[in-house]
Amino acid sequence: MNPVLVLGGGPAGLSAAAELAALGAPVLLVEKAEYLGGNPKRWHYSLLAPDLTPAEEVMGPLLRRVEDTDLIERRLRSTVTRAEPRDRGFRVELSGPESSGWREVSSVILATGFDHFDSRRKYEYGYGRYPALIDFKEFEGMIHDDRLTRPSDGALPKRIAWLLCVGSRDVQVGNPWCCRMGCAVSIKQAVEVRQKHPEIDAYVYYMDIRTYGLWEDLYWKSMNQYGVKFVRGRIGQITQAEGGKRLVATGEDTLLSRPTEVPFDMIVLASGMEPGTGTKDAAQIFGLHVGPEGFLTPKLSDLNPVDSGRPGIFLAGAATGPKAIPDSVTEGMGAALRAYKYARD
Amino acid sequence: MPIVEKSLVEGLQRTETLEVEGIDVSGDWNTFIASRVHTDLDLSIVDWVRGQPQGTTIDRCWQCGTCTAGCCLHTDYGLEEFNPRYFIYLAQLGFEKELARYAQTVWRCVSCNKCVERCPKGVKVEEVVHSIGTYLELSGTAPKSPADRFDEAYTRNLLERGILDEAGLFQAFEAGEGRTLPTREKLRMGLKLLFSGRLHTGPLAKRTRGWGRLRPVLERMLAEDLAGRRRGLPSRRPPTGGP
Lengths: 345, 243
Ligand code: SF4
Ligand code: SF4
Ligand code: SF4
Description:
The complex is a heterodimer.
Chain A: E1 4-7, H1 11-22, E2 27-30, H2 38-42, E3 47-48, E4 53-54, H3 55-67, E5 72-75, E6 79-85, E7 90-95, E8 101-105, E9 107-110, E10 114-116, E11 133-135, H4 136-144, E12 159-166, H5 182-196, E13 201-206, H6 216-224, E14 229-232, E15 237-241, E16 246-253, E17 258-264, E18 266-271, E19 273-275, H7 277-285, E20 313-315, H8 325-344
Parallel strand pairs in A: 1-2, 1-9, 2-5, 9-20, 11-18, 12-13, 12-18, 13-14
Antiparallel strand pairs in A: 3-4, 6-7, 7-8, 10-19, 15-16, 16-17
Helix pairs in contact in A: 1-3, 1-8, 4-5, 5-6
Chain B: E1 12-14, E2 19-20, E3 23-24, E4 31-33, H1 44-51, H2 66-70, H3 72-76, H4 84-93, H5 96-100, H6 114-118, H7 125-139, H8 146-161, H9 166-177, H10 183-195, H11 211-230
Antiparallel strand pairs in B: 1-4, 2-3
The complex binds iron/sulfur cluster (3 copies).
């Protein structure tokens, strides 16, 4: 059997590859970065929402399952540049430092993931210009290593704000969808801060809190147990004060119908999820349909969410829309099963 | 620009005379509108309330308004400014000045506990609202109302001899408020008290037996109670934010 091509080494791709290997199928795992692990690895995710499990405890075993088998051929810093359908399966052109050229594969799983929204595009906030303004993917690394200092002067911040929906639910940046995890991750970060440093006050600015399903527990806990404060309103702009030591968030407290201009030592932006560059490229190379949002669209999202509609091509993870790690892992398993069945039949 | 509908403006401040850089500019320029912009968040109220036996659930509130919707005062009685959800939010984020406007209103809660029955987050709304009221009372954030001053005059009067001197209380309260009833009206009330045997003021004063010993005990208890209730109150800060 020719190997199954798994494109993308994040949670969904790793899960798919590990599952295929468990079924005894050979896998060609292609990842454009120089490491496996995807966004969780890239940004040093700290604890995972909603159960506050250390990210290593999830990604570690997943990585080991992929690395501890000879059935998975791993190609890092590599991409697929062209693909041609065969009678069964595909011929794909790889480009990478170790091996370039055409390879025969029996089926394809696209797990090309997402990119975090580039918060600089929300120019009225000043990300990239103000050192005390942090994107929450960077903040993950900061709490992970307990480097909770104001970038401006190294002091421990006394008051931190999280702004939700940055680059999500916003036609001005072209992203009308909800990122699905920004609320939970921000609230989780606020809880982590309060656990480590109860003297820091934590405020979350929100329009809606979308901690769906059982994740709601995290939201309740953050209030009931950790005293995280929630202010309803979307911050309109941020300016610097005290020579850059603090930031002033200007917004409206919509529960009070009152304008607010509140100083913070640090502001964290919950930047949304966008289709990854790899997703756009893959759509083009494999001739797949993308939805108006730019994510890959399964043919029957209700009945078979991992089926692209084109024979032999399967989808998993955030390539089809914002998704949390457990959902990506599950889809990886589903896609593995479908791809295996296709390759074997 | 002159402010025409002054009555509609919230947070209006007037000065009778005004000097700017040594020049007297009194006149039509004496009216200012305080900024409505809230410029700080202050957690000392919520910290205090949480520390009270009645206030432990304040952090849970997520502002859904279920309590207010069912509150008999707000909805049935139509007392719109009595809004438990709003009181809690103001306390949670430390909008002390805005909260002070409701220092009298918060006590109108009739403790029907409908809010507590219905709150989806398990906030003991009725208790939290009372706790907020206590905060406002003890911290001196809100100006005293005539009712507060009457309470104080009443306590002082009672402590004097251990028995209420109604005429004396009335006089003291009147003097404190700077208001007086017409003499005829007072005479009418005085006579009524006299004939019903309740006029014991001045030379007619009665005194509870053993009051000389009881009074210091009571006074000490009151002082201890107040000190206990004040414990943990934030030290007075300069007011922040709000009009
Ligand atoms: S998950 Fe939360 S932060 Fe993300 S877009 Fe939806 S509402 Fe906004
Ligand atoms: S019902 Fe409970 S959660 Fe809802 S506003 Fe009232 S106190 Fe808050
Ligand atoms: S207990 Fe007080 S606040 Fe609650 S519903 Fe009754 S009157 Fe309203």
